[in-house]
Amino acid sequence: MSSSPYRIAVPESRLEDLQKRLDLATFPDELEDAEWAYGSPLADVKRLISYWKTNFDWRKQEAKLNELPNFKANVTVDGFGDTALHFLHQPSSAPDAVPLLFVHGWPGSYIEVTKMLSSLSGDANGVSFSIVAPSLPNYAWSAGIKKKGFGLGQYAEACHRLMKLLGYERYVTQGGDWGMFVTRSIGLLYPESCLASHINMVRAYPPEWSSNPLLAIQHAVTPYTEDEHQGRSRSDWFANEGSGYRAIQSTKPQTVGYALADSPVALLAWIYEKLHDWTDNYPWTDDEILTWISIYWFSEAGPAASLRIYYEATHTSTEANRERVQHWIGGVKLGLCYAPKVCEYIRGSFNSFPRSSPISTS
Question: The Epoxide hydrolase N-terminal domain covers which part of the protein (predicted)?
Fold first, then answer.
């Protein structure tokens, strides 16, 4: 197996089809004072659809994406045969550079790493990284999976075999959202290769009395800090007001998939809400939003395929299942990133996060 350079080239017929669908867009009404409480606001969606239809230049954005170090390779996943993976690969010139596998989640993609490529591959305090950022199967320019049961272990296997194909016998990982689950699955299944993992979607349980009694006492008597109270409040908001998509995508992804595959308005509204809610007031430009959404719309497997990871991760019973990789994985160093809207404090304080505590996300 080998990799080869890849160039994005969406057929003109796909652009014409999108234009027709945007021209026929129908919008729902909205309550006068709804704002973001009910989901993506009507005024924002109408503005973005109008811009998508009249001013957004996919070919210009496509050209920028093609300036990135895009490649494709076939990797074999046991029970599923060969699958074509798209990925960015930017080796560092430093002889001691650390291979870094960067794994996205939903509704993300490989472009999450693009603003960090130069800084990661450069020399920062004597450390530089060789970056590999795949599009997961079912996402962007990677192939879709046609059989049931492609769960976390299979995503991990695909990524691990890609790293081996590129000559990286040992490497570190970074994962957010489902990328956290995939990279922790890699640590579980391939600890001889995965030396360390960094995650930016974090949950923690409090120490258990049976396994960590001293830490459990410390946790019980130590007041939460203001930051921790805010984190718990944010988690409560997500659980009660922001997680409906997860219930749908984990149980009936095909049903909502019809809307996302047929309507660019539905796709934009479904994902735009997350871009707003989960990114710490990041000042999105319309071009950034529509490039993000267009990658899903033009994706090789189609936008509905991207939802299936939710179902498979919760219905596929293997060693690398969602429940198992929420727990501590020994032998693989772990780094955690805390951010106001990305990290969720669940049922406990990070002050006393012990090695034996479960961690989870998504």
Answer: 4-113
